[in-house]
Amino acid sequence: MFLWGTATAAYQIEGAAKDDGRGASIWDTFTHEPGRTRDGHTGDVACDHYHRWPEDVALMADLGVNAYRFSISWPRVLPLGTGRVEPKGLDFYDRLVDGLLAAGIAPVPTLFHWDLPQALQDVGGWMNRDISYHFAEYAAIVAERLADRVPMWITLNEPFVHMAFGYGMGVHAPGQALLFDALPVAHHQLLGHGLAVQALRAAGARQVLITNNCTPVWPASGSAEDLAAADAYDTLHNRLFNDPILLGEYPDLKAIGALDDVVRDGDLAVISAPLDGLGINYYNPTRIGAPADDGLPFTDLGITGYPTTAFGWPVVPDGLRELLTGLRTRYGAALPPVYVTENGCSQEDVPGPDGTIDDQGRIAFLDGHIRAVEQAAAEGVDVRGYFVWSLLDNFEWAEGYHQRFGLVHVDFDTLRRTPKASYAWLRERLTELRNP
Q1: CA dist., res. 367 & res. 374, Å (int)
Q2: What domains sit in the chain, N to C, each tagged with a CATH number?
């Protein structure tokens, strides 16, 4: 069965930041530091999904999706990241899973979508190898409660983005600017993934994936310098996180750094444990040129000539087809079934005089990308799911509430939900897909 779903993340929608024993995450800390987020926005309330989840499940049921990708808040389950379990946190996800199943929607939880418990960051975060083992402990605790009803699990969301933005450039939590000295974060996340796979399998998990953010890398020209720069960026963004999982080895990292002092005997065997699928998040290609004078081995030149989202990201639907077929070419038989676990766009969504939101740009975006998935499948890619980012307008990390990705508009003063035109369009499209 092909999975048609929507996706969200705990810190972006749940709110209830201090309810029922939840511990602090790095995003709680980060957002309360002056200047970290646009206009000082925080996820303290967000969409209040923690209290309003039945309304949100009803919206999904009305939309007609058969899967929902959400994330579990590590500090809601283990307030200090390890040790004492908060039963009220597990109870919340218990209720959510049962509510989804009752509505005919498959729950697809992600264990880590960037909200590391602050107590673990205080001892080094993902720079500390021990966190990988704490992650596996957390995975086992959650799976023990939910694995009997959850058909598919995702270990990590976008480990590249968490490493690059959170530890490399400091624009996301935990706000560290280590540049390429952040590379150990990649390995420790991947090791945590592998250990979590073991824990999930032991608890009876049926299907286990990881979600990587990937981008087609376009060289600025055919010059040797631009090609080398594009290869370095492809290694950092794509291969650093796909090769160890799918091939059991790291790519040549000489252009970006080294992991010689971090990787231990047996690590890659743990990381490359067989998976039931690979989650791919796609937003746009990346155009790369030769290095500038900033010490980086590449320059992101941006892409022009395409429509853009409110974020300024280029809208290139065929880039998704290119990405999926490129993965098949690169990894061949080592590539498991693929699920597009995030794809969507931000828009300047302003309700009209009658309260409706006519987001035609999002409709065009979704239509183009769904067609790209269909084309990739026609070209032989075993793609088995497509999840729209996002169900709701939500807290968009460093941008706060200024970027709206939702199929459903949220008034952040009243928390009222209003389905947009894209919601109605997708509902009709899903009906057509089920009844061709």
Answers
A1: 11
A2: 3-434 (3.20.20.80)
